[in-house]
Design a protein that fits this description.
CATH topology of the largest domain: STM4215-like
Number of helices: 6
Number of domains: 3
Largest sheet: 9 strands, mixed
CATH architecture of the largest domain: 2-Layer Sandwich
């Protein structure tokens, strides 16, 4: 049972009281007495929680946590209603007496097998049984509670339930004992010789944001967070490892490209074989002495395609050159714009496209180019800007082409 369930203890006590009274044959409502009088014409008891106070006798009692729990006393009013919704008739008085007798019989609120699971979870770690005690109920107390213009003075009896424990929602703090060798089987008491403990200086890097949040290949970005000065850190954008070029405790400077192989004129990301443009998880992980990795949380990095140039040949084929321009598995959209308005949109189709393949975006195998046949015959003469979007991320450069 998580001790955090004790945060629901106030409501659980109210449900527990109602359940015990229902078992004894009473109809029970919960809320202000005046509201209970308007609900139906069934004789019933009404429970109204009118005050919560802190139990002074247990205020500083701790249960091995960094903070003492909250110890509460819950104060209720018990009101009875007859079949006519009156609380002042002889039948209502009789019902109130029977209800008080049932509460007095209970004395301690038991968590037996019939209690609802959520109620039991919220109260089962209470170190003391929940005790019912009756309070004096003078007329001025009832008058203060039932003082609305539409509320009547209704005979009621006050009682309280205590102690109700609410534990702070944080884990308990424990440590290994000094003077015990836990490396021995079974552990051995070694007294003043002490025992060497492996102390972790950090639980690994934590990331807050990446600046800028969108970038192209070969850009330099800054990752902000905590514990980014640790040794043996690696930075990954999806399946691609990025190059770390600077480290400080609260930020990491990274180049959006891995180490360039000697047999390649470009890095592995620009080469088009690792990832495509789009949104990718960005993580920083640390290689530990046991050869396992301790990873940070994930932030999102938006990798844009790169457009270097676009041209239209005499046959009307549009060719776009760049990097990370997409594969057959990517969502590639090419738009022709004039005066800021979209004139025509082209998309990738089936792989390979059935003939004729006109007006279908055809990506190259290395993501370095896109070709669209038949563009010249679908656009009126004029100059157009070509915009490329891959997996929702648009290239910064939109070069111009002219249709004659």
């Amino acid at each position: 049972m998580a001790l955090a369930d004790s945060g629901r203890a106030i409501g659980a006590v109210t449900r527990l009281l109602r359940e015990h009274l229902v078992r004894r044959g009473f109809a029970v409502s919960i809320g202000k007495p005046e509201d209970a009088a308007d609900t139906n014409t069934t004789a019933k008891l009404n429970l109204f929680l009118y005050e919560t106070t802190f139990d002074a006798s247990l205020r500083n009692v701790s249960l091995q946590y960094s903070q003492p729990p909250l110890w509460l006393a819950l104060k209720y009013l018990l009101t009875a209603f007859d079949d006519g919704e009156s609380s002042d008739s002889a039948d209502a008085h009789e019902l109130l007496g029977r209800g008080l007798s049932a509460l007095h019989e209970l004395n301690f609120l038991a968590l037996d097998a019939a209690v609802a699971t959520d109620v039991r979870l919220a109260l089962e770690n209470n170190p003391e049984p929940l005790k019912i005690t009756f309070d004096e109920t003078p007329p001025d107390l009832i008058s203060k509670i039932m003082q609305g213009t539409d509320e009547k003075f209704r005979l009621s009896t006050a009682f309280q339930v205590r102690p109700v424990m609410i534990v702070p929602n944080e884990p308990p703090k424990f440590s290994l004992l000094v003077g015990v060798d836990y490396t021995a089987v079974p552990p051995a008491v070694i007294g003043r010789e002490g025992v060497g403990l492996a102390v972790l200086a950090s639980l690994g890097p934590r990331l807050d944001r990446v600046d800028p949040s969108s970038f192209e290949v070969d850009d330099t970005i800054t990752i902000a967070g905590e514990d980014l000065h640790l040794s043996n850190l690696e930075c990954w954008l999806g399946a691609a490892q990025l190059s770390i070029v600077g480290q400080k405790a609260d930020r990491l400077t990274v180049r959006v490209e891995g180490a360039q192989p000697s047999d390649m004129p470009e890095g592995p990301i620009a080469g088009g074989g690792l990832i495509s443009a789009g949104e990718h998880p960005l993580v920083v992980r640390q290689l530990m002495p046991n050869r396992r990795y301790r990873s940070s949380n994930i932030v999102v990095g938006k990798l844009h395609p790169t457009v270097d140039a676009a041209g239209l040949d005499g046959a009307g084929m549009l060719t776009i050159d760049g990097a990370l321009l997409g594969t057959w598995n990517d969502d590639v959209i090419v738009a022709a714009l004039q005066d800021g308005a979209i004139v025509r949109v082209f998309e990738t189709g089936l792989q390979p496209p059935p003939p004729p393949a006109n007006l279908t975006v055809v990506p190259s195998s290395d993501q370095h180019s896109l070709t669209i046949a038949g563009v010249g015959s679908t656009l009126a003469a004029g100059t157009y800007q070509v915009a490329v979007r891959v997996n929702g991320q648009q290239a910064r450069l939109s070069p111009s082409v002219t249709v004659s």
